[in-house]
Amino acid sequence: MQRRQFLGSIAAASLFPRGGFAQSSQRRLTAAAHRQQILPEDYPDTEIWSFDAAFPGPELRARQGETLSVTVENALPESTSVHWHGLRLENEMDGVPGLTQDPIAPGEAFDYHFALPDAGTYWYHSHAKSMEQVERGLYGPLIIDENDPPDVDQDITLVLDDIRLQRDGTVASFDNFHDLSHAGRIGNLWLANGQIDPAYPLKRGERVRLRLISAANARVFRLGLQGFDGWIVALDGMPLSDQQPMPDELVLAPAQRIDLIVDVTTDDDEAFLITFERDGGYAIAHFPVTGPSAAARQIRAVLPPNPVFPIDLRNARTATLMIEGGAMGGMRAARFEGKELGARDLASRGVFWAINGEAGRPDTPLLDLSLGESARIGVANNTAFPHAMHLHGVHFSEVLADGRLGPLRDTILINPQETREIAFQAHNPGDWLFHCHMLAHHQAGMGTWIRVSA
Ligand code: C2O
Ligand code: CU
Asked: Are 50 and 75 a contacting pair, CB within 8 Å?
């Protein structure tokens, strides 16, 4: 691999403690402030907002087909809610204040309770003032195990983030119109599981399931794995039907997940997960390797499929979604809270983006679908920035240029001036948000919703 240049390993080589198992039984998560050492040891620690005084929050783990019950207690100074990102769950459990539930006020609790039809790699995060609350640390991994999981020696979850910290350890202020109107809140420190370049010891020849989750506010990670030989088995939680060889560069946009199965094949004493930046590649996590040399194994597993909801492209309802605004975007005006406002008025309210001429969540849905109906939505990014559009409640496929359907995803990265089309079956009744997961963009207007009527 060429672009090789590693940041010194600043953090102590400690294995991240794995979270407990969440059975079908009741689990509690408390959202509160706590202090954690995030900067290297000779810097001050950081006040983080997190679940159960852990950053990231504890890994919730359950088995496909089970039910998960989580009581979220709010011990924060402000309201919150929890969204179970990527789960195809009941609408009332989706955690969107003002759309599916009331916010959880300080001192109050909310009981989330839902079935788990799908296996895969998901995550949970605050969906209230999320640009700020997710950045402060209110997120954690959510893993649903297959009933017949692939045979691996280790199963490692890496929640990646880039946080913006100051030298005194504090989370940089959120009062920043530049983030809202440009690329979003890009951090200055890469973290894997809340640590700078943590270490995960491996043995040569071991087979590892790697679950990559991006909890970043806005950064699009370009990642590489060095020292492994492997393939991608799932995207955004959903198994791929065919093995896909591991590319040199893995693109992981905010909220997206990539599951890989990799064999440790290096003869060096370390393997790496690298983030490619403009000036080179840096280790975001590393893997000390021991043991006699070993080749990649022959058999390559794929994951069993999750329930399938076929898409009827021919009879699908269609909609288009035009994203505009942002710096260098030239948006003149948009409707906001029922009024047509000029760009300057919008900016004074911290609003910089619009979808189909409407900034903020409109009163009426982009589409009102009946249960079981298929839909196709063309998404045009008429701005100077990439956007990671996330649809709640269902997974969609991209309609590819040759008319075939791409893999199921819940978040799609759309580059500047690109138009992409997604399609899905409206199999899950309720009101579902459709928004940019660059969280500053969502806050600054980039969100709409669809209704699926039973
Ligand atoms: Cu991961 Cu609407 O969010
Ligand atoms: Cu965006």
From this structure: no
CATH number, span 317-453: 2.60.40.420
Give the ligand at the shortest distance from the Cα of 216: 1
3-class secondary structure, 336: strand
CATH classification code of 154-290:
2.60.40.420
Q: Which ligand 1 atom is nearest residue 442's CA? A: 2
Distance 387 CA to ligand 1 centre (A): 13
**Exposure b/e, 86-119, CB count within 10 A at least 16 = b:** bbbbbbebbbbbebbbebbeeeeebebebebebb
The residue nearest atom 3 of ligand 1, judged by CA position, is 85
Q: Taking the CA atoms of the chain, what radius of gyration do you get in angstroms?
A: 21
Enumerate residues lining ligand 1, CB below 6 A. 83, 85, 125, 127, 255, 390, 392, 433, 435, 437
Q: Whose CA is nearest to atom 1 of ligand 1?
A: 85
Could you give the CA distance from residue 431 to residue 95 in angstroms, rounded to a whole number?
Answer: 11
**Tens-binned pLDDT, residue by residue, of the chain (454 aa):** 333 333 333 333 333 233 344 446 579 999 999 999 999 999 999 999 999 999 999 999 999 999 999 999 999 999 999 999 999 999 999 999 999 999 999 999 999 999 999 999 999 999 999 999 999 999 999 999 999 999 999 999 999 999 999 999 999 999 889 999 999 999 999 999 999 999 999 999 999 999 999 999 999 999 999 999 999 999 999 999 888 999 999 999 999 999 999 999 999 999 999 999 999 999 999 999 999 988 888 888 889 999 999 999 999 999 999 999 999 998 999 999 999 999 999 999 999 999 999 999 999 999 999 999 999 999 999 999 999 999 999 999 999 999 999 999 999 999 999 999 999 999 999 999 999 999 999 999 999 999 999 9
CA of 155 to the centre of ligand 1 (A): 25
Mention every residue, 6+ apart, whose C-beta is less than 8 A from residue 175.
none
The CATH number of the structural domain formed by 24-145 is 2.60.40.420
Q: For residue 443, give the ligand nearest its CA.
A: 2
Q: Which residues surround ligand 2, an ion (CB under 5 A)?
A: 387, 436, 438, 441
Which ligand has its closest atom nearest to the C-alpha of 411?
Answer: 1
Nearest atom in ligand 1 to the alpha carbon of residue 392 is: 2
Task: State the span(s) of the chain assigned CATH 2.60.40.420.
Answer: 24-145, 154-290, 317-453
Cα–Cα dist 333/151, whole Å: 55
